[in-house]
Amino acid sequence: MFEQELFEKITKAWELDQNHPHRGMTKKPIPEISEIRTIIEISYLASLKREEGRDVTFSIVILSKQNVAELQRSCSRSQIILSFDHSLPLTVESIIKLAPASHPKTTALIAGFKADSKTDFEIWGMMFFGSTANRFNEIPATIEGLALFRPDLMIVTALSAGSLLITRGDSQIGRFAGGDFITAIPSPFVSRAMGNYIMESIKENKVFLEHQNIYWHIYRDSLDYLLSEASARGRGGTIIIIPENKVINYRDKYFTKFSFDGGLQVGTVLDRMLKPAENYNTLFYVSLNKKYSERLDALAQLTCIDGALILSSCLEVVSFGTTLKAPEKWKGEVLIGPDGFGGGGEKFNTSKLGTRHNSAIDFIGDCPSTFGFVLSQDGPIRGLVRKDSNTILCRPDCRVSMFA
Fold it and tell me: 174 and 205, same structural domain?
């Protein structure tokens, strides 16, 4: 179905991830290209199906029965592995039948070669593991013997029709979409990517001046969480962030459809999170993080209204359902921004972009120190930041980070 070159790109991405000096990965063999091809192609076809009007979502981990003992012996990251009484053939029909019984974030169907075969695959069980933790849902305590983790194996996850995520443990190897494979690169918020430009936009925030890097680390994780939640809603949208001290200056650059008399007090909760940790017990810490994530969830929901969500750099709502109306079209360059791996600098093709993207580009080009993100429905999240009076940098897809 797909060219051999695509599967060679996946194996190369695995090797890059495994050999990266900062990843700390155990050296282990990658599945054979023939295995990857089979799993990818069947998963892709299954993802195109719909059941009762819904996308079919699932995860599949590559593991043969005869290799289970070796996995458990060599890996300290535990999972629960359950075998079916009767294996099913690895087919689109089998996946569709089993997918509703599993959640792709915590459960994977297990596919591997049948005994004494190197060509015939079967689905022989299900693997249960813990969901990936982030700053806002992590519980700072471990119960011995009960913690479960994503395995150090290749997992293929169907996110939506024709879109597959390739992961290893908590690491993203890359994303298969539109018939191509895109190798994972660092988060857009690292300093060598968009991070330095975003930090420049928030440097006058009172809390940033007080807490510096501690604030920055929570802030960039907040953006990551916000984009993830907004994308999960599948409605598309635009998020524009304006420095706190520039909100009034740029008021004539957009038309407000909806706004609030007051705010969600995001900054208030964030300020509590920055208090010394020794003042909090575990229960309070978990509760505070949950309250903060609820505020970010509320922001993400506002992107479902047609129009842009405009936030101050303190992540308070300025306007939503907003029409951006920069007086002039951006005449400068739009370049692919640095990716943290030494890539970037090429011209970004804007000729096929729609109104949503072009209005965001025009606004950011006309309003220094602003930055933004354009979410396509079931598609990429593009990050935009103005480098100088002649250049806007674009992150083509903020989803392709190095974390699952």
Answer: no
Contact 394, 383 (CB under 8 A): yes
The pair of three-digit structure tokens given for residue 354, joined into one six-digit string: 């729609």
Which of 183, 217, 240 finishes a domain? 183
**pLDDT tens digits, residue range 77-91?**
688 999 999 999 999
Cβ atoms within 10 Å, residue 139: 12
* Range(s) of the domain holding residue 64: 4-183
Report yes or no: 225 and 132 within 8 Å, Cβ to Cβ.
Answer: no
pLDDT at residue 74 in the model: 63
Domain annotation covers residue 401: no
Please indicate, yes or no, whether residues 170 and 263 belong to a single structural domain of this protein: no
**Strand order across the 254-255 sheet:** 254-255, 317-324, 308-312, 237-242, 371-375, 381-388, 391-395, 333-336
Return left, alpha or beta for 289; rule: phi > 0 is left, psi -120 to 50 is alpha, else beta.
Answer: alpha
Domain check: are 207 and 350 in the same one? Answer: yes
155 in any annotated domain: yes
How far apart, in whole angstroms, are the C-alpha atoms of residue 118 and residue 39?
14
pLDDT digits (tens, 9 = 90+) for 222-235: 999 999 999 988 88
